[in-house]
Design a protein that fits this description.
The complex is a heterodimer. Chain A is an alpha+beta fold. The radius of gyration of chain A is 36 Å and the shape is elongated. Chain A has two domains: 189 residues, Penicillin-binding protein 2a (Domain 2), CATH 3.90.1310.10; 403 residues, Beta-lactamase, CATH 3.40.710. In chain A, a hairpin with a 4-residue loop joins strand 13 and strand 14. Helices cover 41% and strands 16% of the residues of chain A. The C terminus of chain A is likely disordered. Chain B is mainly alpha-helical. Chain B has one domain. The longest helix of chain B has 34 residues. Chain B is globular, with a radius of gyration of 21 Å. Chain B starts with 8 loop residues before the first helix and ends with a helix. Classes of the chains: A alpha+beta, B mainly alpha. Chain B: It is found in: Cell inner membrane; Membrane. Chain B: It is a multi-pass membrane protein. Chain B: Peptidoglycan polymerase that is essential for cell wall elongation. Chain B: Its main location: membrane.
Chain lengths: 693, 370
């Protein structure tokens, strides 16, 4: 130090102390103010934030699955509703003497050992407040047995939840679809805790899937107070769920069920329209799975049984089945010819065969129809008439009319996957196959074979548009009906001629006489059709064509049918397509099925009586037959049925992809046959004939 | 002896006012502990209350001890406690791991706790012995630095960062009050600013380092070490202005707040009593501390002045470090809130400080009367 130290006296020291002590005291006061300020910041400015954090610490919410909205028919009758589901849960925190309680539960509910193992594992993992499922969907007796003994079963909670219920069962399966537990991927995508709540189901197929946002509703919340260690302290007020909205359909559930039953053992589909509005009154694809058991989770063997079935119960044939429409396109052809200027009175002579180039095309009537005008050609379903006209005008003159009537068109319907077939023309063929359109192509297309493919929905739209003369759009949701559809660009006289021809098919000695209705003042107008799924070889033709009954199922002809009624003032239109029906059993063939379905709309009692007479001949109603089939399938399996139903999501078709696989499989045979048929030259050699009942 | 600073009239009377404040703080603490136990006297509130009154009576008894006894005992006590610290360290070395306790069979003593007031007494005694003229010499600094440094280093090594900080801060306060040139403190503060990051990197244990890093960013580890600070802030913040009400705190009752009856008792209190309760408690402590400083201002000897202000500041450090810790302004260093937190060490220390302060106060009034 350069300067000498200051001499410090005691008095100076005391003064310095006093100053510095004052400074220290002030600093302490400052720190005190700082602390108070900090506390005020936390508890006033950030109070809301920390309150939220404190609440989310304290309160643990478990979602309560919302009650799913109903799917109801046009009259309000449920197609899908919710039934009370009795379930037993365990709240781990309340459980005392676990082994004794579990043993008693096992006895009361007769639970298999595997289930007991699962419950034990779940109990080990679950946080104390979260219920662990013991059993769901149990019957009232067992539920009551557990409820009665609840005092001896601390921690066991018998609860009433809701499960999806389809009163009509398989009859609506392809319409409504079904529900099931969400997949792990779905949970990963949204992280919505609702998706992993026990008992929550989402739509997996059909309307259940496409209407999911409408039907789901808002989950409620069960709120419990828990400690940091997850121990349940108290149950707080429960926030109730907001049920999903109901969806009304245009479907008439009575008609839907009737049609499903009337299809009998067929692998078929039926669509019924109200031709004034385009509302779909029925949309049936049979056979089908039972959506009730699908929604509970089906067992592996059940799934296997459905997959093995050659009647493809997993496919919605209405929108996904594609068929050559066969002679059902002949009224449409007639309309196209009229539109192109062909006189309806012009006669074509049918000798039974027509030579085009170096090929011979046969009529289904081997000996020929003789001379026919347009109406009679439709009534007798003469192939030669349409061959000749198609040869004369070319199919490019007919294809636009086919499209106008709905063939090859996609419709706005709440279904994930629709396959909408083909209306071929020369431009299409050039685009697709890079080859030119041939006369043989026109001829094949003119009788609804060859490249022409349609689904049953389109066939029904075609019938409805012919019946109404308007550009009807099919609707399924009651709140989205397309009213005021414009008139189609056809002359009403032309339409009238076609309708009269279709009246003649049934009522004036045409091919559909079996479809005549016995309701006073109501006549049915229709057109039958047959679509061949195999080639008929020359050798076969020489040796006599095998009857369908002698053929294996997969090789039999498809049977098709379009109709409307009353013929003079159309109100309803329908299409029925029976895969590989082969016209073998009269009661189970299209005309009588069509007649009965249409009769139901005008005279329900008569239709029911008719059904009651014929149903026993094919083994009873849908439920009875499905139960018998399941029993037979089980009996045929060498291995005894597994004691535990493997509840799976994985095997059940959880989305349309697997349904499409089934569809593709089903159509594979068909497509292969058509592929060869579609080849113009081979067809020309062997001809494509159609046989009508 | 002349009175250069008039003692305010209320302070001049028997310190009933401060005794009342101390009883009020302790009683409030017991109420909080009663709630922290879920509305039960056991296991904390009753034993804490019992111990408080034993120590409280002890403090009043200590107030009759003449101040010269404290002066004479300061350095011997310092020596004994330092030896005890060394003994603890040796036992710890033998047993392995961290060791803070000296188990005498009937009581477990934590010598570092006693060092907190003792360092004040020892430093005050040193400057008392130092001739006034020496105050600005280097000889006024290094012995004090040594007095502080030895126990500070041992406690740091235990390792007990909070206590070591308090010992150093207590000693430094006395040095400051003794008139050591201010520039040394300014320089020291600058040196600390440089040294602290280095110390964090090289001198601290991993868990201590972690605590400091997490203090800087508590949300980085909300379920690990940052959990304490986060939950404590939630408790204080969710209490709002008036609190959730007595026995209504969820953070403490549902065990979200760790150490809710010891180091984080202030958060337990704030959740139920809100900003009002917190401010009243801070105010009560500040009044007690101000009384202590004023006792120093009124004291007639250098030892008494330095001791009184030093001990008052020791109490202040307890309160300030603890509150900064629970409010997320300081790392978690394990300093309890005296008189409120459950546990005997801090309670005993603070009441010991109070006893000595009252003894000086008694001396002051005697001098004033004469």
């Amino acid at each position: 130090m350069r300067r000498p130290p200051k001499v410090v006296t005691e008095a100076m020291q005391a003064y310095s102390f006093s100053r510095r002590a004052w400074l220290l005291g002030s600093a302490q006061l400052g720190v005190g103010a700082l602390l108070a300020g900090r506390m005020a910041w936390l508890s006033i400015a950030q109070n809301e934030k920390y309150n939220t954090l404190s609440e989310s610490n304290r309160v643990n919410t478990t979602p309560i699955p919302p009650r799913r909205g109903w799917i109801v028919d046009r009259h309000g009758a449920p197609l899908a509703d919710n039934r009370t589901d009795f379930r037993i849960d365990i709240i781990p925190d309340r459980l005392e003497d676990e082994e004794r309680v579990l043993a008693l539960l096992q006895r009361l509910l007769s639970l298999p050992p595997e289930e007991m193992e699962r419950i034990r594992l779940d109990l080990k993992d679950a946080p104390g407040f979260q219920p662990v499922q013991v059993a769901e969907n149990i019957d009232w007796d067992r539920f009551a047995a557990v409820s009665l003994r609840q005092p001896e079963l601390p921690g066991v909670a018998p609860t009433r939840g809701f499960a999806r219920n389809y009163p009509a069962g398989a009859a609506v399966a392809h319409l409504t679809g079904y529900v099931g537990a969400p997949t792990a991927e779905q949970y990963k995508a949204t992280r919505d805790p609702l998706l992993v709540t026990p008992g929550f189901k989402i739509g997996k197929d059909g309307l259940e899937k496409s209407l999911e946002p409408v039907l789901r509703g808002q989950p409620g919340a069960k709120r419990v107070e828990v400690t940091a260690r997850g121990k349940l302290v108290a149950e707080l007020a429960t926030r109730p769920d907001v049920p999903g909205r109901n969806q009304r359909l245009t479907i008439d559930t009575g008609l839907q069920e009737y049609a499903a039953r009337r299809l009998g053992t067929n692998s078929g589909s039926a669509v019924v329209f109200d031709v004034r509005t385009g509302e779909m009154l029925a949309m049936v694809s049979m056979p089908a799975y039972d959506p009730n058991s699908f929604s509970d989770g089906i067992s592996h063997w059940e799934w296997q049984m459905l997959s093995d079935n050659d009647h493809v119960p997993l496919m919605n044939k209405v929108t996904q089945g594609l068929y050559p429409p066969g002679s059902t396109v002949k009224p449409m052809n007639a309309l196209a010819l009229l539109h192109a200027g062909v006189s309806p009175s012009e006669r074509i002579f049918c000798s039974g065969a027509l030579r085009v180039g170096n090929g011979i095309f046969h009529c289904h009537a081997r000996r020929g129809h003789g001379p026919l005008d347009m109406k009679n050609a439709v009534m007798q379903s003469c192939d030669i008439y349409f061959y000749e006209m198609a040869r004369r005008l070319g199919y490019d003159a007919i294809a636009p009319t086919a499209k106008l009537l709905g063939l090859g068109q996609k419709f706005e319907l709440p279904f994930g996957s629709q396959r909408y077939g083909t209306v071929p023309d020369s431009a299409w063929k050039l685009r697709k196959y890079k080859t030119k359109w041939t006369v043989a192509d026109s001829l094949n297309a003119s009788i609804g074979q060859g490249y022409v493919l349609a689904n049953p929905l389109q066939l029904a739209v075609m019938a409805a548009r012919i019946a109404s003369g308007r550009d009807l759009q099919p609707s399924l949701l009651a709140d989205r009906v397309h009213l005021d559809s414009p008139a189609l660009p056809f002359q009403s006289e032309h339409l009238q001629i076609v309708r009269e021809a279709m009246f003649g098919v049934v009522n004036a000695g045409g091919t559909g006489g079996a479809a005549r209705m016995y309701v006073p003042n109501v006549a049915l107008a229709a057109k039958t059709g047959t679509a061949q799924v195999r080639r008929i070889t020359m050798a076969e033709r020489r040796g006599g064509v095998l009857s369908n009954g002698q053929l294996p199922f997969k090789l039999r002809d498809h049977a098709l049918f379009v109709c409307f009624a009353p013929a003079d003032n159309p109100r309803y239109a329908a299409a029925i397509v029976l895969e590989h029906n082969g016209h073998t059993v009269r009661n189970l063939d299209t005309p009588m099925i069509g007649r009965d379905i249409m009769t139901y709309l005008f005279d329900r009692d008569r239709a029911m009586t008719s059904l009651a007479e014929v149903e026993p001949t094919w083994g009873g109603d849908i439920r009875t037959r499905m139960a018998a089939e399941a029993a037979a399938y089980q009996a045929a399996r060498a291995a005894p049925p597994q004691a535990v139903a493997t509840k799976t999501d994985a095997v059940v078709p959880s989305d349309s992809a697997s349904v499409e696989r089934a569809t593709d499989l089903a159509n594979a045979t068909q497509a292969a046959v058509q592929g060869s048929e579609a080849n113009g030259t081979t067809i020309a050699e062997e001809g494509t004939t159609e046989r009508n009942p | 002896m002349s009175r250069r600073l008039p003692v305010p009239e209320p302070i001049a009377r028997l310190p009933w006012k401060v005794l009342f404040l101390v009883v009020a703080i302790a009683t409030f603490g017991q109420v909080v502990l009663y709630s922290a136990a879920g509305g039960s006297l056991k296991p904390w509130a009753f034993s804490q209350g019992l111990r408080f009154y034993v120590f409280f009576v002890g403090a009043i008894v200590l107030s009759y001890v003449p101040t010269r006894w404290w002066r004479d005992m300061a350095l011997p006590a310092y020596a004994v406690i330092t030896l005890a610290l060394v003994a603890v360290e040796l036992i710890g070395a033998v047993r392995g791991g961290s060791q803070r306790w000296l188990d005498l069979g009937f009581i477990r003593l934590q010598p570092s706790e006693f060092m907190k007031p003792c360092i004040v007494l020892a430093c005050a005694r040193f400057y008392d012995m130092l001739p006034p003229g020496e105050t600005r010499r280097f000889s006024a600094i290094w012995p004090a630095a040594l007095l502080i440094g030895i126990p500070g280093a041992i406690v740091m090594k235990q390792p007990d960062l909070g206590t070591a900080l308090m010992i150093c801060a207590g000693g430094a306060t006395v040095m400051f009050l003794a008139g050591i040139p201010l520039r040394l403190f300014v320089g020291g503060a600058l040196a600390a600013a440089v040294a602290i990051p280095l110390a964090i990197n090289y001198a601290l244990h991993d868990y201590q380092k972690n605590r400091i890093l997490i203090f800087l960013d508590p949300e980085s580890d909300p379920l690990g070490t940052g959990y304490h600070i986060s939950q404590s802030k939630i408790a204080i913040g969710s209490g709002g202005i008036t609190g959730k009400g007595f026995l209504q705190g969820t953070q403490s009752h549902l065990d979200y707040l760790p150490e809710g009856q010891t180091d984080f008792v202030f958060a337990t209190m704030a959740e139920e009593w809100g900003l009002i309760g917190g401010c009243l408690l801070i105010l009560a402590f500040l009044l007690v501390i101000r009384w202590g400083i004023n006792v120093g201002q009124a004291a007639s000897t250098r030892f008494e002045r330095l001791t009184a202000a030093g001990l008052a500041t020791t109490i202040f450090f307890y309160v300030a470090i603890n509150l900064m810790m629970v409010m997320g302004l300081a790392p978690v260093v394990g300093i309890p809130l005296p008189l409120v937190s459950f546990g005997s060490s801090a309670q005993m220390t603070v009441l010991l400080c109070l006893g000595i302060l009252m003894s000086i106060d008694r001396q002051n009034r005697r001098s004033a009367r004469w």
